[in-house]
Protein backbone atom coordinates (compact mmCIF):
# COMPACT_ATOMS: atom_id res chain seq x y z
CA UNK A 1 0.00 0.00 0.00
CA UNK A 2 1.43 3.33 -1.04
CA UNK A 3 1.05 6.26 1.30
CA UNK A 4 0.96 9.71 -0.17
CA UNK A 5 1.01 12.92 1.80
CA UNK A 6 0.55 16.39 0.37
CA UNK A 7 3.00 17.99 2.75
CA UNK A 8 4.69 17.15 5.97
CA UNK A 9 2.85 18.85 8.79
CA UNK A 10 4.23 18.62 12.28
CA UNK A 11 2.43 19.39 15.49
CA UNK A 12 -0.55 17.97 17.31
CA UNK A 13 -2.66 15.67 15.18
CA UNK A 14 -6.42 16.18 15.13
CA UNK A 15 -8.72 13.64 16.73
CA UNK A 16 -11.54 12.21 14.66
CA UNK A 17 -15.06 13.33 15.50
CA UNK A 18 -17.69 10.73 16.42
CA UNK A 19 -19.52 10.95 13.09
CA UNK A 20 -16.22 10.56 11.25
CA UNK A 21 -15.42 7.39 13.21
CA UNK A 22 -18.83 5.95 12.27
CA UNK A 23 -18.23 6.76 8.61
CA UNK A 24 -14.82 5.05 8.70
CA UNK A 25 -16.32 1.99 10.44
CA UNK A 26 -19.12 1.74 7.88
CA UNK A 27 -16.68 1.93 4.98
CA UNK A 28 -14.41 -0.74 6.50
CA UNK A 29 -17.41 -3.01 7.13
CA UNK A 30 -18.58 -2.63 3.53
CA UNK A 31 -15.05 -3.39 2.29
CA UNK A 32 -14.86 -6.34 4.73
CA UNK A 33 -11.51 -4.98 6.00
CA UNK A 34 -11.57 -6.98 9.23
CA UNK A 35 -7.99 -6.19 10.27
CA UNK A 36 -8.42 -2.46 9.75
CA UNK A 37 -11.77 -2.46 11.54
CA UNK A 38 -10.31 -4.32 14.54
CA UNK A 39 -7.31 -1.95 14.55
CA UNK A 40 -9.50 1.15 14.38
CA UNK A 41 -11.77 -0.03 17.19
CA UNK A 42 -8.96 -1.16 19.49
CA UNK A 43 -6.93 2.01 18.85
CA UNK A 44 -9.91 4.13 19.89
CA UNK A 45 -10.80 2.05 22.96
CA UNK A 46 -7.24 1.62 24.22
CA UNK A 47 -6.05 5.20 23.73
CA UNK A 48 -2.55 3.72 23.43
CA UNK A 49 0.40 5.19 21.59
CA UNK A 50 1.39 3.23 18.49
CA UNK A 51 4.49 1.96 20.33
CA UNK A 52 2.15 0.23 22.81
CA UNK A 53 -0.70 -0.70 20.49
CA UNK A 54 1.16 -2.40 17.65
CA UNK A 55 3.15 -4.91 19.79
CA UNK A 56 -0.01 -6.22 21.49
CA UNK A 57 -0.42 -9.97 21.19
CA UNK A 58 -3.59 -12.03 21.15
CA UNK A 59 -2.92 -13.20 24.75
CA UNK A 60 -2.79 -9.55 25.90
CA UNK A 61 -6.46 -9.03 25.08
CA UNK A 62 -7.96 -12.52 25.25
CA UNK A 63 -7.90 -15.92 26.86
CA UNK A 64 -9.55 -19.15 25.72
CA UNK A 65 -11.53 -17.53 22.90
CA UNK A 66 -12.83 -14.76 25.16
CA UNK A 67 -11.91 -11.09 24.72
CA UNK A 68 -11.32 -9.25 27.99
CA UNK A 69 -13.60 -6.36 29.02
CA UNK A 70 -10.62 -4.50 30.50
CA UNK A 71 -6.89 -4.68 30.04
CA UNK A 72 -4.01 -3.39 32.16
CA UNK A 73 -0.97 -2.28 30.20
CA UNK A 74 2.35 -0.70 31.17
CA UNK A 75 3.20 2.10 28.75
CA UNK A 76 6.65 1.90 27.19
CA UNK A 77 7.26 5.64 27.12
CA UNK A 78 6.36 6.39 30.75
CA UNK A 79 6.46 2.99 32.46
CA UNK A 80 3.05 3.90 33.93
CA UNK A 81 0.28 1.32 34.03
CA UNK A 82 -2.98 2.26 32.34
CA UNK A 83 -6.23 0.39 32.09
CA UNK A 84 -8.48 0.45 29.08
CA UNK A 85 -11.87 -0.98 28.24
CA UNK A 86 -12.64 -3.13 25.24
CA UNK A 87 -16.20 -2.34 24.23
CA UNK A 88 -18.57 -4.97 22.86
CA UNK A 89 -18.16 -3.60 19.32
CA UNK A 90 -14.39 -3.88 19.58
CA UNK A 91 -14.60 -7.36 21.10
CA UNK A 92 -16.70 -8.51 18.15
CA UNK A 93 -14.39 -7.01 15.54
CA UNK A 94 -11.31 -8.46 17.27
CA UNK A 95 -12.88 -11.92 17.49
CA UNK A 96 -13.81 -11.90 13.79
CA UNK A 97 -10.31 -10.75 12.83
CA UNK A 98 -8.56 -13.29 15.08
CA UNK A 99 -10.69 -16.14 13.66
CA UNK A 100 -10.29 -15.22 10.00
CA UNK A 101 -6.53 -14.66 10.44
CA UNK A 102 -6.16 -17.89 12.48
CA UNK A 103 -4.17 -16.11 15.16
CA UNK A 104 -2.67 -18.04 18.07
CA UNK A 105 -2.30 -16.68 21.64
CA UNK A 106 1.33 -15.59 21.15
CA UNK A 107 0.79 -14.02 17.72
CA UNK A 108 0.76 -10.27 17.28
CA UNK A 109 -2.80 -8.98 17.00
CA UNK A 110 -1.89 -7.13 13.83
CA UNK A 111 0.91 -9.16 12.19
CA UNK A 112 2.93 -7.78 9.32
CA UNK A 113 2.28 -9.39 5.93
CA UNK A 114 5.88 -8.78 4.84
CA UNK A 115 7.99 -9.28 7.97
CA UNK A 116 7.67 -12.64 9.70
CA UNK A 117 7.11 -12.60 13.46
CA UNK A 118 6.65 -8.82 13.46
CA UNK A 119 3.59 -6.57 13.93
CA UNK A 120 2.56 -4.07 11.30
CA UNK A 121 4.93 -1.12 11.21
CA UNK A 122 4.35 2.37 12.53
CA UNK A 123 4.55 3.75 8.99
CA UNK A 124 1.90 1.30 7.75
CA UNK A 125 -0.38 2.21 10.67
CA UNK A 126 0.14 5.93 9.98
CA UNK A 127 -0.64 5.26 6.32
CA UNK A 128 -3.93 3.58 7.24
CA UNK A 129 -5.00 6.47 9.51
CA UNK A 130 -4.20 8.99 6.77
CA UNK A 131 -6.11 6.89 4.23
CA UNK A 132 -9.13 6.82 6.56
CA UNK A 133 -8.98 10.62 6.83
CA UNK A 134 -8.49 11.08 3.09
CA UNK A 135 -11.46 8.81 2.30
CA UNK A 136 -13.61 11.20 4.36
CA UNK A 137 -12.40 14.15 2.29
CA UNK A 138 -10.24 15.45 5.15
CA UNK A 139 -6.72 16.83 4.80
CA UNK A 140 -4.77 13.71 5.75
CA UNK A 141 -1.70 15.72 6.82
CA UNK A 142 -3.66 16.79 9.93
CA UNK A 143 -4.10 13.15 11.00
CA UNK A 144 -1.76 10.45 12.22
CA UNK A 145 -1.44 7.62 14.70
CA UNK A 146 -1.80 10.06 17.60
CA UNK A 147 -5.21 11.04 16.21
CA UNK A 148 -6.38 7.62 17.35
CA UNK A 149 -5.00 8.13 20.88
CA UNK A 150 -6.67 11.53 21.13
CA UNK A 151 -10.08 10.59 19.66
CA UNK A 152 -11.81 8.91 22.62
CA UNK A 153 -10.00 11.09 25.17
CA UNK A 154 -11.39 14.18 23.44
CA UNK A 155 -14.89 12.68 23.28
CA UNK A 156 -14.77 11.76 26.98
CA UNK A 157 -13.72 15.29 27.90
CA UNK A 158 -16.36 16.89 25.66
CA UNK A 159 -19.08 14.82 27.32
CA UNK A 160 -17.93 15.02 30.95
CA UNK A 161 -15.55 18.00 31.24
CA UNK A 162 -13.69 15.71 33.68
CA UNK A 163 -10.02 16.43 33.03
CA UNK A 164 -8.90 14.06 35.82
CA UNK A 165 -10.69 11.13 34.18
CA UNK A 166 -8.94 11.85 30.88
CA UNK A 167 -5.60 12.17 32.69
CA UNK A 168 -6.07 8.67 34.15
CA UNK A 169 -7.21 7.17 30.85
CA UNK A 170 -4.14 8.52 29.04
CA UNK A 171 -1.71 7.67 31.82
CA UNK A 172 -0.56 11.26 32.22
CA UNK A 173 0.99 12.36 35.51
CA UNK A 174 0.29 16.10 35.26
CA UNK A 175 -3.00 17.87 34.60
CA UNK A 176 -1.11 20.53 32.62
CA UNK A 177 -0.02 17.86 30.12
CA UNK A 178 -3.59 16.66 29.67
CA UNK A 179 -4.90 20.21 29.25
CA UNK A 180 -2.30 20.94 26.57
CA UNK A 181 -2.87 17.55 24.98
CA UNK A 182 -6.59 18.14 24.57
CA UNK A 183 -6.28 21.83 23.70
CA UNK A 184 -8.89 22.36 26.40
CA UNK A 185 -8.16 25.94 27.37
CA UNK A 186 -8.24 27.23 23.81
CA UNK A 187 -11.40 25.29 22.89
CA UNK A 188 -13.21 26.37 26.07
CA UNK A 189 -12.12 29.97 25.57
CA UNK A 190 -13.41 29.98 21.99
CA UNK A 191 -16.75 28.45 23.01
CA UNK A 192 -17.10 30.99 25.80
CA UNK A 193 -16.27 33.83 23.42
CA UNK A 194 -18.78 32.60 20.85
CA UNK A 195 -21.53 32.54 23.45
CA UNK A 196 -21.10 36.19 24.37
CA UNK A 197 -22.94 38.57 22.11
CA UNK A 198 -21.56 42.14 22.17
TrEMBL record:
Keywords: DNA integration, DNA recombination. Residues 11-197 form the Tyr recombinase domain. Signal peptide: none annotated. It comes from the Bacteria. PROSITE patterns: TYR_RECOMBINASE. It holds the Pfam family Phage_integrase. InterPro entries: DNA_brk_join_enz, Integrase-like_cat_sf, Integrase_catalytic, Tyrosine_recombinase_XerCD. PANTHER family: INTEGRASE_RECOMBINASE YOEC-RELATED, PHAGE INTEGRASE-RELATED. This is Tyrosine-type recombinase/integrase. It comes from Shewanella intestini.
Amino acid sequence: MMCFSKAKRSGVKKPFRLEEIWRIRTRLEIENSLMQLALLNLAIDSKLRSSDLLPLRVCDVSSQDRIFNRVKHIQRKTDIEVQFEITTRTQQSLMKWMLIASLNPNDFLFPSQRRKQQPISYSYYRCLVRKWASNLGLDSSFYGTHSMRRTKATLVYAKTKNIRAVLLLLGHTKVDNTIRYLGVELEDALLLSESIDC
